[in-house]
Prior knowledge:
The protein is α+β, with helices and mostly antiparallel strands. It folds into three domains: 4-64, CATH 2.40.50.140; 68-131, DNA polymerase, domain 1 (Orthogonal Bundle); 149-195. 43% of the residues lie in helices and 19% in strands. The chain has nine helices and five strands. It has helices at residues 32-36, 66-75, 83-92, 95-103, 107-110, 118-131, 149-159, 164-172, 183-195, and strands at residues 4-13, 16-21, 24-29, 44-53, 58-63. It has a five-stranded mixed beta barrel with strand order 1-2-3-5-4. A hairpin with a 2-residue loop joins strand 2 and strand 3 (24-29). The termini are far apart. The relative contact order is 0.09.
Amino acid sequence: MIASISGTIVEILPDGAVVDVHGVGYRLLMPSSVIASLPAVGKPVRAHTHLHVREDAMTLYGFSTIEQRDLFAVLLGVGGIGPKGALAVLSVYSPDAFRKALVTEDLDALTLIPGVGKKTAARMILELREKLALPELEVVPGGNGKRAVLVEVKGALLNLGYTPAEARSAMESLPQDRDGSSLEDLLKMALKELVR
């Protein structure tokens, strides 16, 4: 398998790029977020790659980080998501933002991905929770033992009249290290972010 390539950009295309490696031009399909960050034609580039082999084609996909490449490979294992769908996920979200949407079970965020409806989003949450080794959400002390803190924070923001997009943005601003943070602390942090 081709894990990465280094060479010179020969051509930037709407769906990827052609990279010259010692006289051989490799056509890479890429997420739009990666295409937007490519250097100019004639400049050197290094891409982490995934070779997808089918009966009728061998397609090389390029990514700017190992995390993107690894998430792409995991997404291929979800029913109903092929290479095109996996590229769409990475065109909309960084691996961290995508994981956060999965952890908070944010169906609205996941349906922003082209071609992903509510059913596919729910399947992604179910199938990827284990595959991506997503952390279990903290349980509210004294609560019913089932509701997660982040889900409650998002619900509180929606109840206060914020849109799903505003709630999602505030949730993304919360610190990664939330040890010892109560529901009230996290809600205050999210509200401060929304007031800015």
